[in-house]
Automatic annotation (TrEMBL):
Membrane-protein topology: Multi-pass membrane protein
Segments forming a coiled coil: none
Enzyme Commission number(s) of this protein: 2.5.1.141
GO biological process terms, semicolon-separated: heme O biosynthetic process
Protein name: Protoheme IX farnesyltransferase
Main enzyme class: transferase
Lineage: Bacteria, Pseudomonadati, Pseudomonadota, Alphaproteobacteria, Rhodospirillales
Pathway(s) served: Porphyrin-containing compound metabolism; heme O biosynthesis; heme O from protoheme: step 1/1
Length: 315
């Protein structure tokens, strides 16, 4: 990639011409948007599941548990804010993102950067002080990975951006697990793999029906670089890898038959929609898969909790 839009100079982002503009009126809503609340909600939920599924020697004190969940959310929001600061140039030309606070001119880039960095540092330090250092280290890795590895390095350079960068989005349940136990166990790795393998079909489904947006912004998403046919094929491959991994909690004894049945049914529905995307040529099937994939991940993790609750009630 050689075009200017693909290689944004970091110094330009640190002190662009828009920084000199007078700060618009303060808006709590705009700062909240910087935190990417929709993404944050899924991060918080998966982090909670990781915490509740972890086999802790003793129950985590409620104050510590609430603090851990809040700090996971704060760290995710910090990464989102820094991402919006760095990507404000391409957000300005994409229909889906052009009304965000920075491209719309409602906040200055410097304010967004200071906001994001402050939350990032505060969340990691507080996690170390209030929870444990393992969870704090994982939170720091998540933020740095999302900002530097995904946003700065991968996103504008390779169609594998969301595959490699997807590791950051898969870490919240591992952080939750570490918050409860002080270490990372096999179950945490399984939860990580579920989200990691879910990310490509989920993100590429969005890229398929938003292809023109990414093309206009110069972001090398898979449909733009490899074409739609290849993208649909790779989505199906990742879907076929994802479904067996969702059954791994049953195999390692982390969940029971109730979860196994639910995961199998949900997996069959996911594969059916992935097959529709593979066979289709329009944007409706990818859009349907994208929307279903959000519900799918939520239900997979929710079923883990339900299965655990039923097992505890029985025993």
């Amino acid at each position: 990639m050689t075009s200017r839009s693909h290689h944004v100079d970091l110094a330009t982002n640190l002190a662009g011409p828009s920084d000199a503009a007078r700060e618009p009126r303060f808006s709590v809503r705009d700062y909240a948007i910087l935190l990417k609340p929709r993404v944050m909600s899924l991060v918080v939920f998966t982090g909670c599941v990781g915490m509740l599924m972890a086999p802790a020697a003793a129950p985590l004190p409620i104050v510590t548990a609430v603090a851990a969940v809040f700090l996971i959310a704060l760290g995710a929001g910090a990464a989102g804010a820094i991402n919006m600061w760095y990507d404000r140039d391409i957000d300005r030309v994409m229909t889906r993102t052009q009304h965000r606070p920075l491209p719309a001119g409602r906040l200055s880039p410097r304010s967004a950067l200071v906001f994001g960095l402050s939350l990032a540092i505060a969340s990691v330090v507080a996690m170390a002080l209030l929870v444990n250092t393992v969870a704090a280290t994982l939170l720091a890795v998540t933020i740095v990975y999302y900002v530097l590895i995904y946003t700065v390095w991968l996103k504008r350079r390779t169609p594998q951006n969301i595959v490699i960068g997807g590791a950051s989005g898969a870490l919240p349940p591992v952080i939750g697990w570490a918050a409860a136990t002080g270490h990372v166990g096999l179950g945490a790795v399984v939860l990580f793999l579920i989200i990691f393998l879910w990310t490509p079909p989920h993100s590429w489904a969005l890229a398929l029906f938003r292809r023109s947006d990414y093309h206009r912004a110069g972001v090398p998403m898979m449909p733009v670089v490899a074409g739609e046919r290849s993208t649909r094929q790779q989505m199906f491959v990742y879907s076929c890898l994802l479904v067996p991994v969702t059954l791994a909690p049953l195999l390692i004894g982390m969940s029971g038959a109730l979860y196994g049945v639910a995961a199998a049914i949900l997996g069959a529905l996911f594969l059916y929609r992935a097959l529709q995307v593979l066979r289709a040529r329009d944007s409706e099937a990818p859009k349907a898969l994208f929307l279903f994939s959000i519900l799918y991940l939520f239900l997979i993790f929710a079923c883990l909790l339900v299965d655990r609750a039923v097992a505890l009630a029985v025993w």
